[in-house]
Task: structure prediction
Amino acid sequence: MDHHTHPGPEAALPVAGEWPAAALPAVLLVSYLAAVLVLRGRGIAWPAARTLAWAAGCLSVGAAVVGPLARPAHHDFTVHMAGHVLLGMLGPLLLVLAAPVTLLLRVLPVRAARPVARLLASRPAGVLAGPLVAGVLNVGGLWVLYRTGLYAAMHTDPLLHALVHVHVAAAGYLFAFAVLGGPDPAPHRSSPQWRAAVLVLAIAAHNILAKTLYAAPPEGVPAEQARAGAELMYYAGAPVEIALIFLVCRPWLLPRERGTVRAAA
Amino acid sequence: MSTPPQARRNTRHGRNLVAGVLLGLGTVAFVDEVVFHQLLRWHHFYDLSTPDVALISDGLFHAFSWFATVASLLMVAALSRERAFWGAAFAAGWLTGAGFFQLYDGLIQHKVLGLHQIRYGVDLLSYDVTWNVIAAVLLLAGIVLWVTTARRARRLAKPART
Result:
């Protein structure tokens, strides 16, 4: 009989999940850069700001899942929250601003691009990219994560751990896209009033969740870490939220003057 | 500019007001966050006795106040671009919005819903009175200016219609 009270499977977990986790953002970054190079080869320019946004987004997502920030996140809730802001808020916003679908449609031959465009215009895609649905998937997912046993469970099950991270990033992306209604083609884009209203509700739900985490820590999290984590979630999330508000409101309340040329769409 | 653009039929009174109201809300929320939460630390991030309904009310108002600030500034930019920014109407909205929100915060959120108090470990009465009297003065001034500018806007609009 041996009692392995120390290392155990939990300590080995981050190492086991580290390489696949690092591979995904790396592949995304390399593919995007390759597509930009292909376009350039055809003499088509692609805005450098978008390439920069994509790189920063991949970095943000990557920093949350691998490396010096990801490792302590397994046992420190405050660090975990820093990861949450990078993985679920800042990273996805930057990725959306990089317009990857537009890039994909441009780089693909017409025959291959058509089904992609059809998929985007399909009804299921429209439902999924509706601001309310995306908001529930995004912030609702966080409520489930922290208010059920899921948070504790994901630290013992590597697969669950990976799934939660993928969900947070994907839902963050979907929500940012649904609320901004661009810059990628958004055939189902709803009115700016509705998108702004859902954004305000989602921000409120996020902030209320942060405050309840402060008062009642998730399962298995010490009170002190929960408080620091909750404040971090509240305050570090704010700049991203303000950026989203600005990006939703600008084309609505301060439209470009007629006659001026629109920046490359 | 404190005079409406005379050449225009439309003084954009409503839009100036809305922009003002939004910034008024945003300003009070910002002052609350920066001065009372961060600098003075009189307010608590979360008072452990706060009931759920107060938490929800506060969460919604804070989320909306960020939106209000950003939306207002963009509206002001749009109004100045079409040379329709009207300071007095904007101020009327600002005073009304700021007064309303402070009164809501001071009476409904702090007192009725029982959100965190203005300060802890002191006699609250003088704090509450000061808070709410300032709010009422702002609100009253806003309404007076609102009515005055509305009358002026109507007067300016009239000759254009005939």
